[in-house]
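Hi support team,

I'm filing this because I wasn't sure whether my run with nicotinamide-adenine-dinucleotide finished correctly. The job status page said complete, but I'd like someone to confirm that the output block is well-formed before I use it downstream. Pasting the exact inputs I used:
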Amino acid sequence: MKAVVYEGPRQVSVKDVPDARIERPTDVLVRITSANICGSDLHMYEGRTDFEPGRWFGHENLGQVVEIGTGVDKVQVGDWVVVPFNISCGHCKNCERQLTNYCLTAQPEPKMAGAAYGFADMGPYGGGQAELLRVPWGDFNCLRLGEDAEQRQTDYVMLADIFPTGYHATEMAGVQPGDQTVIYGAGPVGLMAALSATIRGASKVMIVDRHPDRLRLAESIGAIAIDDSKVDPVQAVLDETMGLGADNGCECVGCQAHEPDGHEQPNLTMNRLVASVRFTGKIGNVGVFVPQGPGAGDELAKQGKLAFDYGMFWFKGQHIGTGQAPVKKYNRQLRDLIAAGKAEPSFIVSHELPLDRAPEAYEHFDKRDEGWTKAVLHP
Ligand code: NAD
Ligand code: ZN
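And here is everything the job wrote out:
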């Protein structure tokens, strides 16, 4: 089958890899029809991780079931499904507590938890930027979709990761009706956090970035766009909140945070969040801080260390939640909001491309080129 294969830093190619197939009785085999490129793929693409050349990408996947193992009894051949990026068994200590992002069974390394498709350090699983995907524990890991699935793929595919991830940021930040919420990063994840804050009833959603196209998308769903290449974003948030600071904040950038001039400064968004959020406010951090890797930012980042203003964070009595999103905890409700026409996450999609054009999509998305907000590949 064809897949988007990692060759080395900033090099991908579309080539033949062994067909995904049923390996265990609980597996489901999906013919992938939509697979997104994610900001998380860029950590591997840029060589910040130890993702091995020859492996293939893709953790935001949707498609149609073509085969099921003998132990599968809910999912059926022909079903349209979206697949949470977390691979989880459903019955370990963490999965039973809805922490499918830290499944203890799917991750083969005994000292680690959590697994994903086509990901560094998250198990040996193949990705879905390919024609076929093997879904382990298929009954647990496939979310079935309604009859409108095929027509509305660009909405439903966001349930594999970024819509639940944005929602998770607002959950960890404790966004409640009437709150004033600030989001750092207007990439796909930050835009999904803005949509989620709106769904949860925030009275004011402020979003910080410097790309005009991404800020325009944020405004299209009613958020206040703050361009940090033009204004001091912390002051802008204080001005919007009568000097008190936002009730809560979401970090949706991660270790690639940089100044508008391009200088990489991984601690920038955390420091600004601590300064932008009020005393006792909560912060939800879903932007990834890659533990370590040869290509990771400055010396501290290379060691997996981040120095942020913990003293002020402590003084203000703030709280923080971190980590990968437990997609399954939210995706059913978010699916039903999409089905009911109450959420349309596809507003961020800028490009729909055949698998063959993945290399150019990676290149443009990695440079955050104007107009490249979210690319959906159709194998
Ligand atoms: P992205 O990396 O394109 O988005 C990041 C955005 O942040 C860009 O628009 C960039 O201009 C902006 N930015 C950079 N520096 C900034 C700063 N100092 N202040 C404000 N904005 C700044 O792509 P994405 O897909 O939105 O991913 C964002 C992050 O979320 C990545 O780290 C990704 O790995 C992570 N992620 C986490 C999870 C999870 O489960 N926790 C899931 C998906 C993605
Ligand atoms: Zn993703």
